[in-house]
Write a structure and sequence with these properties.
The C terminus is likely disordered. Strands 2-1-3 form a 3-stranded antiparallel beta sheet, sandwiched between helices. The protein is 54% helix and 10% strand. The longest helix has 17 residues. Helix 1 packs across helix 14 and helix 10 packs across helix 11. It is built from 14 helices and 3 strands.
């Protein structure tokens, strides 16, 4: 899926007919494996984890309900599926009746503060730019975009990221030559990390030659938290660190080979 679209999927237990409904923007590379990792390590709904461990894999089905969903409508459509199927206690494995609650776990300080969320929504309705709002509350564009999709799914907003101009591309090239990482450049210039990656490939400036997978795992084995690892390296995002650590554990548990 190269387009910015989302997919609604279902994981069904064919023995007791219970099921889970979710949404992802990266169906093939991440979401299914991420569910397996969480189920193995008891990081999902307890009932879901228990059934997964007790029932053989052949009795589980992973199916797609709807695909090619525009990103700006993903939470609105996911919510409609939750309302129709009602996959909650006794029927399914979903634990929340409102979609987008994964934000609560990742950004407790912001999302759990009703006053801050209300003010952000007010600023969004007043058409402040994403950059202005992100700077005002000291949050990332990604989190701000998720807040809009979760709490204001019907609000139409222009692309919050800066367009890649010739001048901006030249700035990115110079910063890549100075050894800065995609994550650092994207965050400071309010552009997508994928855009930085495309420019790096175009000009053959691959500053990802260092194998950070090994370094991250070594630091993790020493007991460092994800945030301490990110602070120490100052090169990759927390999400990448989590992905490295969780996928490595998943390979050991399931004998699956996963691309980092």
């Amino acid at each position: 899926m190269n387009k910015r679209v989302a997919t609604i999927y279902m994981i069904r237990n064919t023995v007791n007919k219970k099921f889970y409904i979710g949404i992802t923007r990266n169906l093939k590379k991440f979401r299914w494996q991420n569910h397996i990792y969480n189920l193995i390590n008891d990081k999902h709904n307890p009932e879901f984890c228990k059934d997964w461990k007790e029932i053989d894999r052949e009795f589980w089905q992973f199916s797609i309900l709807e695909t090619d969903i525009p990103i700006e409508q993903q939470f609105l459509i996911e919510q409609s599926y939750l309302d129709i199927y009602h996959p909650f206690k006794g029927v399914g494995y979903n634990t929340s009746k409102k979609c987008g609650t994964w934000l609560l776990k990742k950004n407790k300080g912001i999302i759990n503060n009703d006053k801050i969320v209300a003010n952000i929504c007010k600023d969004l309705n007043n058409k402040l730019t994403f950059k202005e709002i992100a700077d005002k509350y000291n949050i990332s564009l990604g989190l701000l975009s998720n807040i809009r999709q979760t709490f204001l799914p019907e609000l139409v907003y222009n692309n919050p990221y800066n367009k890649i101009t010739e001048q901006l591309e030249e700035t990115i090239i110079n910063r890549l030559k100075n050894g800065e990482w995609y994550y650092q450049i994207a965050r400071s210039l309010y552009i997508k990390e994928t855009d930085v990656s495309k420019i790096a490939k175009k000009h053959k400036l691959n500053n990802k030659a260092v194998n950070y997978t090994k370094i991250v795992l070594q630091l993790r084995n020493k007991g460092l938290t994800y945030r301490k690892i990110q602070k120490k390296l100052q090169a990759i995002s927390l999400g990448t660190i989590y992905k490295i650590c969780s996928f490595k554990t998943l390979e050991k548990e399931t004998n699956l080979k996963i691309k980092y």
